[in-house]
Amino acid sequence: MRGEATVLHADLDAFYASVEQRDAPALRGRPVIVGGGVVLAASYEAKARGVRTAMGGRQARDLCPEAVVVSPRMDAYSTASKDVFAIFRDTTPLVEGLSIDEAFLEVGGLRRIAGTPEQIAMRLRERVRAEVGLAISVGIARTKFLAKVASAVSKPDGLLVVEPDREQEFLLPLPVERLWGVGAVTAEKLHRLGIRYVGQLAELEEATAERLLGKATGAHLHALARLRDPRPVDTTKRRGSIGSQRALGSHPRTAEELDLILTQIVDRLARRLRDGDRTCRTIVLRLRFGDFARATRSRTLGFPSDRTSVLLTIARSLLAAALPEVTERGITLIGISLSQLGRSDSFQPELPIDWEDGARLDTVLDAVRDRFGATSVARAAQLGRDPGWSTPLLPEHE
So where's the catalytic machinery, residue-wise (predicted)? Predict the structure, then answer.
């Protein structure tokens, strides 16, 4: 017995761009690009002209000169995400978030009180549209992998059920790019081998797939092509790291500008730590140079912290060490990620505690921003400057 299709994959459509169109009626029906230097999101009207996420801003404008380019508003996206996830959790307690705009939901135990998985998905889509004002696509299948593929195939604004008895009929004719884990490099390798469809990969022996693609990748993709994905919806996973980045475009940046941007990023991440009662031990600086090469610099603290002043001091030291290379090569992106996350109540801080004043200041600033909004109070260095709220490292799945 193969089981029943009870896993939902719910994925907001062109999330950032859709929030912009929701909040500005004049943008509805028009091509919208979020982000100037690098495309963070594109509306379906812009996608139809070839604009894609992570594309350079100049290339995107060449493809779609009539597009409206808007700056990202991370607070608006975060609020919309929280509203949608509240609907998810009101639908079922078994929710596994994947990113800011997508999640798996297990609804197998709800038939008697809420109806079939398809009926549940229909109501969920109606609620998201009515209560949050956004379109969401939902795939329903027996496994997480197939549900995710189904939601992607159903876009935009669709609902697709893959019943167990037609899984092969659905999956095998699809391009290999639909497999979870096939990026541009793996797709190109498969194409060179004459493998363009999932069915062709499924026809191979597992040992052959491992030899052609590497042991881990080959085994993983071959299993998916053969419809093997035993992973349940996992509601216990906690994110192993958080991060933000900002695309800077191609024009030169002064050390003062970079410090301001870095400060904004760290301020925001430290608040996210405290909001989640989390701490971190490792701070990672991520850079992309003018030649598009990437580099990382990291440092691990002696003890976990959620203090803005502590994290900012480390981040500034990492940036200072990288400035000579930045000056020589230029910079197009800067980001910070915080890893080795832990619970704030699970460690004893070192003594003497030399950051007490900073802790009190962080608490006051958090309270003000909670009540009056993220931009209600800022550092003096930011006055009169572009707030440039940073962009999460979590990719937007569209």
Answer: 102
